[in-house]
Request: fold
Amino acid sequence: MAKKSRAASFVAWLPQAALLGLARALPVRPRLALASWLTRTVVTAVPSLRARVEGNLRLIFPDMDAAERRRVRDGMADSFGRTMIEVMTRRDFQRRHDWTSPTGPGWEALRAARAAGKGAFLVSGHFGQWEAVRAALMAEGIEAGAMIRPVKNPYLDRDYLACVEAGGKPVVGRDGGGLRELIRHVRDGGVMAVLLDQYTKRGVEIDFLGQPAPSGTMIADLARKYDLPMIPVYGTRAPDGLRVIVEFEAAIPPGTAEEMTQAAANSLATRVRATPEQYFWLHRRWVKTF
Reply:
C-alpha cells in the first residue's frame, strides 16, 4: 500500500479506535446500548445505507409497509451494532457466557463426527449473533475456525482479526491460501464456521428468499469430497438484546453441491422470515444496485 494511502487509512482509523476504546471501557449494558444507538443513527442518517436497506426489503417483502420497514431497519441496526461490539470485545464476551448451551439434531451430528475423528462445516449467515456459535463451542471445548473477508482499513483489520482469532483458529481468508488452510484443517478433523450468504460474482444462482442469489458452492463441494457433515447453525438474539439462543439444525442431506447450497439457503431463509430484524439487510446479497 502506498505511503499516502496508509496515512489516509490511519487518519480514518483514529476516530474508530477512539470509539472502540470508549466502548471497551464501558460496562457491558452501556457498551451494547452505545453500539446500538450509533449503528441505528448511522443507518438512518446516511442516505446510501438507508436506501440499500429499503431496496432489499422492498425486493424481498414487496407488501411490507413503510412503518414495518422502519421497524426492521432499526432492529437490524440494533442487532448488528451489538454483534460487532461483542466481536470487538471478544474476550469479555467469552467470559460473560451470554448464550444458551447448544441444542438441536446438528449438535449431536457434530459430536458424532468429532468422536469419529472427522471434521465438519458449520454454515450460517449474517443473522443474529453469528459469532456466538463459535463462542458456545469454545465453552464446550471445541475450537472452530472461521472464514472471513478482511476489513478494508488495515489498522482496523488487524484489531478485527485478533478479536476473531480469540474465538477460535484458524481464521482464513477467501483466497487460495485461505482455502488450502481450510482444507488442511477439516481433513485433520477440525471444525470450520462459514457464512454462506455473500454475493459471489461467478457463483451459481440459487433461490434465497424468493430471489436469485449468486452463491458459491465451494463448501458443499468440499463436504461432498471429504464426506463431512454440513450443519446449519444459528445464534438468535433474545428480546433482551443480551442473551443468544444457539441452535444446530439437522445436517444437510448429501446431494449435489448446488442442492446442498440451496438447502443451506432455505434454512437461513426460514430464520430470516421468522425474525427479519435480525438479518443484515445492508448486504448487497442479490444485486449490486442498491
